From TrEMBL, chain A:
Family statement drawn from the similarity comment of this UniProt entry: Belongs to the TolB family.
Described function: Part of the Tol-Pal system, which plays a role in outer membrane invagination during cell division and is important for maintaining outer membrane integrity.
Span of domain TolB N-terminal: 23-125
GO cellular component assignments: periplasmic space
Name listed for the protein in its UniProt record: Tol-Pal system protein TolB
GO biological process: cell division; protein import
NCBIfam families according to UniProt: propeller_TolB (TIGR02800)
Species whose genome carries this gene: Stenotrophobium rhamnosiphilum
Annotated keywords: Cell cycle, Cell division, Periplasm, Signal
Signal peptide limits: 1-20
Main location: periplasm
Binding partners and assembly: The Tol-Pal system is composed of five core proteins: the inner membrane proteins TolA, TolQ and TolR, the periplasmic protein TolB and the outer membrane protein Pal. They form a network linking the inner and outer membranes and the peptidoglycan layer.
UniProtKB/TrEMBL annotation, chain B:
Main location: membrane
Signal peptide start-end: 1-25
Organism: Stenotrophobium rhamnosiphilum
Protein name: Peptidoglycan-associated lipoprotein
Membrane-protein topology: Lipid-anchor
Domain OmpA-like: start-end pairs: 64-178
Region feature Disordered, mapped onto this chain: 23-54
The family this protein is said to belong to: Belongs to the Pal lipoprotein family.
GO cellular component: cell outer membrane
Functional summary from the UniProt entry: Part of the Tol-Pal system, which plays a role in outer membrane invagination during cell division and is important for maintaining outer membrane integrity.
Amino acid sequence: MRNKFFSVLALLMISSAAHADLDVVVTGIDTAATPIAIVPFAGLGAKDVDMSQVIDADLGRTGQFRTLSRGSMPEQPSDPAGLHQASWRSANTDYVVMGQARRDPATGNVSVRFYLVDTLRGAQLLAYDMPAASPGQLRYVSHQIADLVYEKLTGIKGAFTTKIAYVTANGLGNARRFELVVADADGYSPRAMAVSREPLMSPSWSPDRKQLAYVGYERGRTAIYIHTLASGQVRKLVSEKGINGSPAWSPDGKSMAAVLSFETNPDIYVFNVATGSRRRLTDHYGIDTEPSWAPDGQSLIFTSDRGGQPQIYQLPIDGGDAKRVTFVGKQNLRASYSPDGKSLVVVNYDDGRYRIALLDLASGSMKIISDGPLDESPSFAPNGMVVIYATQGRQGAELATSSIDGRTRQRMRQPGDVREPAWSPQIR
Amino acid sequence: MFKNSLVALVTVLAMAGCASKGAHNAQDTNPSAAGNSSSAGAGYGSDGQPVQIGDQNAAAQGEGLFDTSSKANVIYFALDSSDLDSAGLAIADKFAKYLTANPITKVRIEGNTDERGTREYNVSLGERRANAVLAALRTKGVSANQLNVVSYGEERPAAQGHDESAWSQNRRAVIVRQ
């Protein structure tokens, strides 16, 4: 009965709203980062995406690269034959990315060829012809190039072609509008997937990134919805009395942890996504909420105030005793695992500030990676190198990223309140 | 107003049932009373007037109780607390009187928090506040089926700032007519 399919709900409509451009600010470049130059690609028109700028921003955001400004470039070659190694050595640049675009006059499609050169050894590390793309796809092609360069130089898979989901709130009182938005990982190309006058919350990606689960309100009642992005189909997974919250997809995509309060008070449940059947995992008089899966799918971590203040606990998926995980800080909330399972990202409360922190599970040490005072909703990039979170900006809540060493931060400003970023999985 | 009239009507019908039964039972000992009852159109009290059950003053105050602009329906909470203070208990008392006098009126208790802490945790805290108000109303005799609870956590702030003056206005439960 509860698992009816809805094509379109009255207040949850599919649309593709236009958004104002992002204002991206990078602070705290690490001087130990790898120096690289992304030369402007030849052959692009004034109306085309500035591809090298997109690649530059992608690499810079990780904190692992220090990019050379265009004004400081000794030359702007478009292939290795035009590159003078000594000039780049003088500019202290270890790597150069360059390329050229060719437009097919018949179709208008653009073919891009790019190179990555090691200026120290004079070696060509990468040379690719990217598939022909329409001008509208050049931003995506740029992210693909950034992924290739990043993986070549770090050995780690890039996450620049991934997506982020987040929630925006605009307007006050009866004019308030909530939107569930999916955008590129750098915040560009946002699309509103759901719009509501009542709160939308807690987006969670399916591991195949084809579906988003989230919480919606309708006339004073909450529900967990599962939204299939390609079709726009929305399914109501559960809508009991009280809280229906914190959906979290299991790593195999078959189960979903969530919070229900109708039996007594907020406790963790695990749903079979296909059938909608569920079982209760916690039964405690304290608040149990914000479940998140271990990468092996064998245990959950969650927030509980069973010890007085909210802290993170871990529970085997087949039951057993919950074990407290966090001990540093007055409060720790909304934890999730790094992709390698070795650390947790949490919201840490101490000294009157809510900040994003990484807990190393082996050593128990806690590293603060944001300034607060009202930071929340941290989410790892699928390669584990960057964390995105929500922070309070001058013009409202906005998204920010921090490299996992905490040294490189970036803010993505948009009108209105922007919150609850969820970084999509990588396409495998 | 419509709902109050409906309550009065239900009351009259209920009384009508009692009165006619009473008249029937009393027939042997006091046949003239049965005659009066019949001529009055059956089912009124002994003076021929409808009798309203419950606290009419509380019923009359009902409209003001739900007045959002005066915040008569808002109960505020201290930081990290879901306890009703004396002001909160006084508001719960007024609603309890009204709701017991108007048993078909249903309300929704909306729990809210300030923006500190995480969003889903705040949904749980907000529910704890709403449930505290529900418990206070139940203790004062309000029927469970008149009461619904929803928590908005920090999603619906009443004040927009990022300081204690805003936060203290946002840590609240709001009682709205359903």
